[in-house]
Amino acid sequence: MRKSPRFGYSVIFTGLLALSANAMGAVKEAPSTVNAKYVTPSSTQVLTPGEKVANLFTLNMKTPYVLQRVTQRTYWYESGFYATLFYVGDKGVMLFDPLEERADKILQAIRQVTDKPINTIVYSHDHGDHIGSTAALLQLLVKTQNTKPEIIASQATADKMQLLDSQLPRPTKVISWPNGSFTFENLTVQMYGFEHAAHTDDHSAWLLVGEHVLHAPDLLNPDQPPFWNFGGSERFTFLVQNLEQANGLDWTYFSGGHGNIGSHADFAFYLQFIADLKSAVANAMQKVPFGFGVKMDQINAHTVMLPAWYGEISRLATEELRPKYGQYYGFETATLANAEMVAEYLYSYR
């Protein structure tokens, strides 16, 4: 059995939050990308379509977690900038993605609204920052319920966990890929796998059919421009197709694993941002000659040339977008990396 370091991105992030929360003063929240109506989060009041949680950055920095009732039975949870969903049925609870380092907080949030057992855990995809607390949660549940939850994942996720010798608890029920479904009590959950995925090869979107809620972590951060490397995506190549596939499904509320609660307006914003970014990168590629910034008489390896070229292209593209998008959440720290991924895509596929 291989051993992996426990010190992951989420652990680093949690430590930074602990250091910064006490020192944080009053901050001005970034403006909405979709002119959203903001409301104070509530574990009892159902969210009206299009509404978003107010002061979300501050809440993530200063409170243990944020809990918002989305529908009569579906709840949205976020802490430390990581989000997920749980559904309360007549007999039990279904939880998506036990987020890394958050088992105790997630269980506390669930117990805030129900004492029913957690019967089902669903893995959206095999990334440890989203499902890394499964073992810890199972240990907590041993003390409070008699039966272990069923763990559901797609065949693609199960195969990937097997191939990579995952140390996380394996699924006990596997559904077909790329399209599969299961029933939790009276609720149908339909999984739509991205056959050509940008984020990771087992990435998928999970539709709570009767609830009109879609859960697809790392596809899109609602109310924000794309995060660094498009949410840690392994490639940009298929992102637009993935966004269009998810946007075309029948849902009202979107859970993206980060950011706020989403709507179709967030998808429209993302697609427009990407279109503008591709245009800006293409413009920059025409302006920046290959070999820019490299003193040819002072190098002994050609490998410096491509990064220097991409770097200047990304800088120019970011500058072109700044007047339109510069005021939005995380623009300055994410757009350079995203522009570089787009430059690689445009250079490779013509």
TrEMBL record:
Sorted UniProt keywords: Signal
Pfam families: Lactamase_B (PF00753)
SMART domains: Lactamase_B
InterPro entries xref list: Metallo-B-lactamas, NDM-1-like, RibonucZ/Hydroxyglut_hydro
Residues spanning the signal sequence: 1-25
Ranges for domain Metallo-beta-lactamase: 82-258
PANTHER family from the UniProt entry: METALLO BETA-LACTAMASE SUPERFAMILY LIPOPROTEIN, METALLO-BETA-LACTAMASE DOMAIN-CONTAINING
Name used for this protein in its record: MBL fold metallo-hydrolase
Organism for this UniProt entry: Vibrio porteresiae DSM 19223
